[in-house]
Amino acid sequence: MAIDGLIILDASGQPVIQSGYTSFPPAYPLLHIDALNNELSKASRTDSVDPVIYVPPGIGDFSGGSACCHVEMGELRLIASVSGDADPLIAFAFLQAFSDILHDYFGTVSAATLKDNFDVVYQLLEETLDSSGYPLTTSPNALRDIVLPPSLLSKLLASLPAAASTGPTRPGGSVTSNAPSGAFASPIPWRKLGVRHNHNEILFDVNEELRAIVGRNGATLTSNVFGKIETNAKLTGMPDLLLSFSNPIVMTECAFHPCVRLQRWMREKTLSFVPPDGKFVLAEYQYALPHGALAGNVPVPLALKPNITVGEFGGTFMVTFSSRTIKIMENVRIELYLGEGATGAQCTISSAGSGVGSVGGIEGSWTFEPRRQTLRWDIPNMHSSGSWVLRGSWTSKAKIPRPARAFQIYFEVPSYSFSSLKVDQVRLSGETYKMYKGVRLMSCGSVEWRW
User: Fold this and answer.
1) Using CA atoms, how far apart are residues 191 and 310, in angstroms rounded to an integer?
2) What is the pLDDT of residue 23?
3) Dihedral of the CA atoms 226, 232, 235, 238 (nearest 10)?
4) What is the pLDDT of residue 437?
5) Cα–Cα distance between 54 and 50 in angstroms, integer?
6) What does the alpha-carbon distance between residue 289 and residue 419 come to, in Å, rounded to a whole number?
7) How much is the pTM?
8) Do the Cβ atoms of 70 and 6 come closer than 8 Å?
9) C-alpha–C-alpha distance, residues 278 and 251, integer Å
10) Cβ neighbours of residue 178 under 8 Å, at least 6 residues apart?
11) Which of the two ends of the chain, N or C, has the fewest CB atoms closer than 10 A to its terminal CB?
């Protein structure tokens, strides 16, 4: 079996939108909503709830029970119900795809946004998930030809007779001609006919993410780098592109957009494709370590020296953070869960070797989030020579607090690639115009540092 249905809950746990569930009793989706809300009410933190919740049988012939797969999307939660022998990974892949579609259509997604655009959301549900629960069209570029994004122009066209409607103008200066057979006239499913742009350009964003776990002694237990090539194509006609890399050997476990010709990649390690119009993910990959390197030996570009003492009704800490890279790290965020019952914290920040403390500045700022019972340290910019110390204490209602045994560290490094992947050239064929080509690198990291 496939996905039984989709439900979107608001911040209070009430359903905003749900799919039809035509093959199930009316109370079936309510079982999944109640199961999730019960788990959220019992959890001390919302992110500690298991992503897959077993739902006991309560109605009909579903004697084996079912599963509630859920993800958080801002203030909303998306639920996919699965039963039988369905793979939950299919449900999570669909939830992520549908979340990306909503952000592509509406930008900021909230309960108010969905209520204001009920018609569009339900059309998207009909086009992305069939009555049997199997995903259909999940490409935003293809969906935009079937379901018009909400705009003043589309609302005006909807109010006019069908005979008076004309071809829509898409954001970004592109104009679509009125093809007689509509959205499916093109022989290439991901690109329609008659696309024209005033300025022809294609932009590549090579984004890489480091995921690592560091032990108490400072040794890296595991670290991996996952990359993604996000593309924004604004090209006229039917362009055929060839993208080559100077070191494609660093890419392994690759997954490509359907537009990529796989045989060409297998033979020459180059990407040959006719791109969709607009934004899409061209490729995803994992960084292949050089031969002879230990598994998971990607260097972690930072260092943390925590010294935490837990006492009765609270504790004290001194955390030293420094950078190991010559690049500037941005938007550094260090979090520590202080345990159930934590009520507050008092901290000062200073440079290493200095006894002068502050509560904010170039060394960052700290906050205590009562709802999450988490201490958060934000550093906007971290230079290679920088080293900062966070000192303080916290209080708790619990006699013996139980803080998390690991810090969660997040950071960004602009114009940097962990794998050193480099684009060699981009060649255009099939069209005579000249196009602008741009490549931008961005790396980020998520590190669990144990103490």
Assistant:
1) 60
2) 80
3) 40
4) 94
5) 10
6) 8
7) 0.80
8) no
9) 25
10) 166, 167
11) N
H or E, element range at 378: strand 374-382
Find the length of the chain.
451
Give the closest residue to 429 by CA, choosing from 294, 240, 280, 296. 240
At residue 132, φ and ψ (nearest 5 deg) are -90, -5
Residue partners of 412: CB distance under 8 A and separation at least 6: 329, 330, 331, 442, 443, 444, 445
Tens-digit pLDDT profile for residues 395-408: 999 999 999 999 99
- Within a 10 A sphere around the Cβ of 245, how many other Cβ atoms? 18
**Which pLDDT belongs to residue 159?**
64
What does the alpha-carbon distance between residue 251 and residue 287 come to, in Å, rounded to a whole number? 5
Q: What is the pLDDT of residue 163?
A: 44
Task: Tell me the C-alpha distance between 157 and 168, whole Å.
Answer: 9
**Nearest by Cα to 146 from 96, 103, 192:** 192
Across the chain, mean pLDDT equals 86
* pLDDT of amino acid 22: 79
Distance CA 193, CA 334 (A): 49
Q: For position 142, what pLDDT does the model report? A: 79
**Which stretch of DSSP H or E encloses residue 55?**
strand 52-55
- Locate 309 and state its tokens: 């003492």
Task: Provide the pLDDT for residue 359.
Answer: 41
pLDDT range class, residue 168, cuts 50, 70, 90: very low
Spell out the long-range contacts of 185-188 with Cβ–Cβ below 8 A and sequence spacing 24 or more: 188/238, 188/259, 188/274
CA distance linking residue 337 with residue 44, whole number of Å: 11
